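Most newcomers find our protein records easier to grasp once they have seen one. Read left to right, the backbone structure tokens trace the chain's path through space. Once this layout is familiar, the rest of the handout is easier to follow. The record below serves as our worked example for the rest of this section:


***
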Amino acid sequence: MNVYAVILSGGAGRRLWPLSTSEVPKQFHNLAGKRSLLEEALSRAHECFGQAATWVVTSAPYGEKIKNMGVVNEKHIIEEPLPRNTAAAIALAAACIPMDNADVLVVMPSDHFIEPLESFKSDVKKAVALAADGFIVIFGIKPSFPSQAFGYIVPGEEVSHGGRTVKYFKEKPELNEAQQLIENGALWNSGIFVMRKDTLAQSFEKFMPQLFELMMKCNSSSLSELSKEELEAIYSSLPPVPFDRGILEHSRNVGVLEASFKWSDLGTWDAVCDLNAKSLR
């Protein structure tokens, strides 16, 4: 069983305007260290999985910018012709990466803060083991305050490798409900997913058949035969749906693993300021 890292780097980063723009979105900026968030994500992936197993999915306007960074194999940069949210990006990655059905994908955003590396490595190892058992695994973050900005995961029964089943998801609740969710043990949704290729394909086939068809049409042996126009035609008909809403909220084989690493999505200026203030203490 091989493990591949997929870094999602197609977002336009509008929430941190005016620094982050559609021309130079958030992931290309240094917000929490000495390098850009994307460079930090790539470094983390290289340390955990190796450069040969690290792939990036991005929007066409950013492909050249990532190539010019010189820190990722150009053949491992997958360009989407149109933005269609995370479900389509993950389906395209699974199609493009030459992998076996039992191999595992670790999908993570390019613009989050994660540390320390050793804790992330340890948690990923557990998540991969849980995914090998047929779960789609999502990392949950213990909330530090009630927030309307995050999705929440309500854990269920304990399963193997320190994971738990998922009772249900709640997307961006009102403040009072967020407080109640936290009191009942809910976790923030990190947007980091781990699953086997065959588990993913079966889920797409059942809940998002258009994306299953995308996987079949754009598999690693035939993608090079598709013209940009043909891929764009396929993409133009796809629903712009997040992976969480399209797959996780309908699946019964979702497992949540509470993260031991520190995490921030750096989605607001308050979050950026808070993280940098902590680093100065």
User: Anything to note?
Assistant: The longest strand covers residues 187-196.
